């Protein structure tokens, strides 16, 4: 018999870097907390990049009843980032890595009174990932903590937090069978393994044949089997598994069980407004309900190992998952061992989840480190580790846009993926299309995917002339409309993941009217509001539940004679009513655009297949100030109305590339760029030495480059005047 006792309750918490004896002595004065807990729920989300990164102590006495059993193990499902376990004053373990589970044996150390003290530390250091990334590194004991009592003869509990059982199903699609190998680890002599009603008594492992196998078939039918293993002592464990075949083709993209199954979905971080990463099972389920509503068939669980409960939900809901470790942004000379141990734990702990299709080696690792032999070696070591531990899955990595496509690092993982933010941080939307076309033409034999893309939007901001950098809900929607089409036209993309489903905490950010948040979510951080772009994807992906959505509901006050009413729907015909009168009917797909005259206040209603949505909008005389985030940038657009520009001469609306080619105009912009570069230092050097970036900038208009560089109104106008004096 195995007894698992949850010990989330009854802890004392001290936020202090004190020695263990002091922590124990002071415990009574500590704050009473119940797990899951983080000390950064508030300061990790309010901006300023000043959240507490240090040591927290969690102290608790274990009762006699909790300690009963022949052998006793402590199970910590998540301690961010580094933990040390002290039991009755003795240090028993140290664990480095804030996202994987670990266990410690307590038996043999028990006394009459038993005091458990766990120190958790999220300070910066040079060995444990992540250290540099765009999200808050919450500190705390933020997942469940359990005691596991087992008989003397029991399944392995210590090695990398293993479940003690590993199931490898190999499916024959033609014969409709699965050969299922179950391996177990234990200290006994034999084990009874049961799969699908059949039991085998073996030493360690057994293989079963399932006839007429019911497949784990994605969203349609994510069927799960269970494998159970039992020792003569009575110790028993079980795991669910699924029978499926994943495959990737460089031309045709992803395949599930032999049929084309383009992976189209979103990324998720594990945090929530006001709670940090200390999520409950209810929180996980609520997130999954939103993912189901959206209709995504894949999730990238970024940028680290997520909770087991969440992979379970993905198994149950048929969501194909990209799982990864936090080897991110910047390679650390002393972090090699940590990348390997985090990957070992990820694979050991997650192997049985049928939802997981790929292991991610790293994310944007060349953003702040050079592609040198050390970096390559670390990736090769990770890649080999993945293949050794799991020959059934592919490896991938998420590359940063400025990584040259001929870089040798791209040859390490089995399949490739790029994070591209053209049309948001840099460049124009169309450069994404060009990027993939170039890549695919140059490397037709390589599998390529789109691991991140997105644009920040604060649903308080609105515009009828949305543009990059304005943080409006309308620009985010336009951005994603472009990307959706781009993706639909390129079926070879094995997976695409919107960055991100939810706004999330990045305490170092202060932008778009909010402190400490990355606002690329399709849904707000508190999950209360779905931005318009959410419904674009819902219209494209969720074919089950008919719906119609009117965009711009929060854009009530509009200063224009005629306004655009945009509707997203998964139906093929949409009717629009204004003040009860039918204004138009349109056939199409996903996006439906109407233009209507605006006189006063209007009630707008959209209808499709018996569903409807309505909103009120109003004509106003002056642009509504509260809708504009960056007032200076917003007015820049208005300085250069097309009418004021002589198209036969150069202007700031031409691309840097076009202007550069002209003998007279070229040197002028070069001089201006050089001046900017000397003022900006490092970043400018990175641009100078990077041909990919150079090419990309060449395609940007002078105006967007200048705005991005923070140029003021006067200097932009002056350059425009000079350029207007030069005939093309
Ligand atoms: C990235 C990173 C991700 C960031 C995202 C952004 O490429 O991988 O962690 O949050 O960009 O929003 O800038």
Any chance you could write out the topology, listing elements then pairs?
Layout (H helix, E strand, L loop, with lengths): L2 E4 L4 E4 L5 H7 L4 E3 L21 E8 L1 H4 L3 E6 L2 E2 L1 E6 L2 E7 L5 E4 L8 E8 L18 E2 L3 E6 L14 E8 L4 E8 L6 E5 L2 E5 L2 E6 L5 E2 L3 E2 L2 E6 L5 E6 L4 E4 L3 E4 L2 E2 L2 E6 L12 H14 L3 E4 L6 H10 L2 E5 L11 H15 L5 E8 L9 H17 L4 E7 L15 E4 L10 H13 L5 E5 L20 H16 L6 E4 L5 E8 L2 E5 L13 H10 L6 E3 L6 E2 L3 E8 L3 E6 L2 E7 L2 E8 L3 E8 L2 E9 L11 H9 L16 H5 L4 H16 L1 H7 L2 H8 L3 H7 L4 H12 L4
Parallel strand pairs: 25-26, 25-32, 26-27, 27-28, 28-29, 29-30, 30-31, 36-42
Antiparallel strand pairs: 1-12, 2-3, 2-4, 4-10, 5-9, 5-12, 6-11, 7-8, 7-10, 13-14, 14-17, 15-16, 15-20, 18-19, 20-21, 22-23, 23-24, 33-34, 35-37, 37-40, 38-39, 38-41, 41-42
């Amino acid at each position: 018999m195995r007894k698992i006792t949850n010990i989330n309750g009854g802890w004392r918490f001290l936020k202090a870097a004190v020695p263990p004896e002091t922590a124990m002595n002071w415990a009574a004065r500590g704050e009473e907390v119940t797990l899951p807990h983080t000390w950064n729920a508030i300061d990790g989300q309010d901006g300023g990049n000043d959240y507490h990164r240090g040591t927290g102590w969690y102290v608790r006495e274990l009762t006699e009843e909790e300690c009963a059993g022949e052998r006793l193990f402590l199970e910590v499902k998540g301690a961010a980032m580094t933990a040390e376990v002290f039991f009755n004053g003795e240090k028993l373990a140290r664990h480095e890595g804030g996202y994987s589970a670990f266990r410690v044996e307590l038996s043999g150390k028990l006394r009459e009174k038993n005091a458990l003290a766990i120190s958790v530390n999220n300070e910066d250091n040079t060995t444990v990932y992540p250290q540099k990334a765009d999200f808050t590194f919450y500190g705390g004991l933020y997942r469940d903590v359990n005691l596991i009592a087992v008989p003397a003869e029991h399944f392995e509990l210590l090695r990398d937090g293993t479940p003690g059982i590993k199931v490898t199903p190999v499916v024959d699609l033609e014969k409709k069978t699965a050969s299922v190998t179950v391996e177990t680890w234990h200290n006994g002599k034999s084990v009874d393994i049961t799969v699908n009603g059949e039991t085998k008594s073996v030493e360690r492992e057994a293989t079963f044949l399932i006839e007429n196998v019911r497949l784990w078939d994605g969203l349609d039918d994510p069927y799960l089997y269970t494998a159970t293993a039992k020792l003569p002592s009575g110790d028993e464990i079980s795991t669910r598994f699924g029978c499926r075949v994943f495959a990737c083709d460089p031309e045709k993209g992803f395949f599930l069980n032999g049929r084309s199954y383009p992976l189209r979905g979103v990324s998720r971080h594990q945090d929530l407004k006001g709670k940090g990463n200390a999520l409950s099972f209810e929180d996980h389920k609520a997130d999954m309900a939103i993912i189901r509503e959206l209709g995504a068939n894949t999730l990238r669980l970024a940028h680290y190992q997520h909770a087991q409960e969440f992979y379970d939900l993905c198994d149950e809901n048929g969501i194909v998952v990209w799982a990864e470790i936090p080897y991110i942004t910047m390679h650390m000379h002393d972090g090699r061992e940590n990348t390997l141990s985090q990957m070992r734990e990820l694979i050991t702990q997650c192997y049985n989840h049928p939802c997981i299709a790929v292991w991610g080696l790293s994310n944007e690792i060349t953003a702040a480190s050079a592609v040198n032999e050390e970096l390559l070696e670390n990736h090769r070591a990770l890649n080999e580790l993945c293949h050794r531990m799991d020959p059934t899955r592919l490896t991938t990595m998420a590359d940063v846009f400025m990584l040259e496509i001929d870089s040798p690092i791209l040859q390490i993982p089995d399949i490739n993926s790029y994070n591209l933010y053209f049309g948001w941080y840099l460049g124009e939307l169309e450069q994404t299309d060009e990027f993939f076309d170039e890549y695919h033409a140059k490397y037709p034999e390589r599998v390529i995917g789109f691991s991140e893309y997105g644009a920040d939007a604060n649903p308080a901001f609105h515009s009828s002339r949305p543009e990059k950098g304005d943080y409006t809900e309308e620009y985010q929607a336009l951005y994603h409309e472009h990307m959706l089409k781009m993706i639909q036209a390129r079926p070879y993309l094995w997976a695409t993941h919107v960055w991100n489903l939810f706004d999330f905490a990045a305490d170092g950010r202060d932008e778009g009217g909010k402190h400490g948040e990355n606002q690329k979510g399709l849904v707000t951080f508190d999950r209360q509001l779905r931005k318009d772009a959410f419904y674009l994807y819902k219209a494209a992906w969720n074919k089950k539940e008919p719906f119609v959505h009117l965009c711009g509901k929060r854009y009530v006050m509009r200063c224009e004679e005629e306004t655009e009413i945009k509707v997203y729907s998964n139906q093929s015909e949409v009717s629009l009513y204004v003040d009860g009168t039918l204004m138009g009917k349109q056939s199409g797909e996903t996006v439906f655009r109407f233009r209507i005259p605006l006189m006063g206040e209007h009630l707008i209603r959209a209808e499709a297949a018996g569903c409807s949505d309505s909103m009120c909008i109003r004509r106003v005389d002056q642009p509504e100030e509260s809708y504009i985030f960056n007032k200076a940038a917003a007015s820049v657009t208005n300085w250069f109305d097309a009418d004021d520009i002589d198209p036969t001469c150069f202007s700031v609306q031409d691309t840097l590339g076009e202007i550069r080619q002209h003998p007279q105009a070229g040197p002028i912009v070069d001089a201006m760029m050089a001046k900017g570069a000397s003022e900006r230092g490092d970043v400018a050097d990175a641009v100078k030495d990077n041909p990919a970036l150079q090419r990309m900038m060449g395609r940007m208009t002078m105006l967007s480059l200048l705005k991005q560089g923070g140029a003021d109104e006067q200097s932009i106008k002056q350059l425009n005047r000079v350029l207007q004096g030069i005939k093309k």
